[in-house]
Amino acid sequence: MYLFEDTKFSCNFCGSDTIFGVPEDNPNRAQTLGLTWSHTFSPTVLNQIKGGYVRRKANFVDPGSEGIPEFFTIDALVAGFGASTAIPQFFTENQFQGKDDLSVTKGRHSLKFGGEYRRTRNGSSFQADPTVILQAGAWKI
Fold first, then answer.
1. How buried is 7 (Cβ within 10 angstroms: 0-12 exposed, 13-18 middle, 19+ buried)?
2. Smallest Cα–Cα separation from 124: which of 59, 66, 54, 62?
3. Which residues contact 106 (CB under 8 A, 6 or more apart)?
4. pLDDT, tens only, 12-42
5. Across the chain, where does the E strand assignment appear?
6. Per-residue pLDDT tens over the stretch 49-70
């Protein structure tokens, strides 16, 4: 079985930590692969092997927002504006799975033995711009 998903989310005001932000694009892609193999050794012994792979990629980018600063106010009730300092972000996750089961039937009894292995690799990248704060007339980076 193979499943492919390719979606894109866009929002006009989501690319900011403030109310008045810049547009944000969020392209996502997911791919899933699953394989199963069964072998009957005898009428009472069955072996089943399964393997799976999932890859998911999600990016958060602000197209054209480079160089647009983010402004906050000291008063929490007053909204700021500008681009987010936490974007762009890039996420890629790979998950591998392997499983083997052996089923044995003896008379009125059934036994099942098996094992499973899973591994997840998460590759994330946060390439945020450095934040500049104006504090008492001096620039602080």
1. exposed
2. 59
3. 44
4. 555 555 555 556 667 788 899 999 999 999 9
5. 2-11, 24-42, 45-60, 70-71, 81-82, 89-106, 109-126, 133-135, 138-140
6. 999 999 988 877 665 555 555 5
Taking the complete model, does pTM exceed 0.70, yes or no? no
Q: Where residue 100 falls among pLDDT bands split at 50, 70, 90?
A: very high
Q: Is the peptide bond before 23 cis (omega within 30 degrees of 0)?
A: no
Q: CA 101 → CA 38, 57, 86, 94, 111, distances in Å?
A: 9, 31, 45, 24, 10
How confident is the model at residue 89, as a pLDDT? 75
Q: Residue 81 corresponds to which tokens in the numbers above?
A: 């504006």
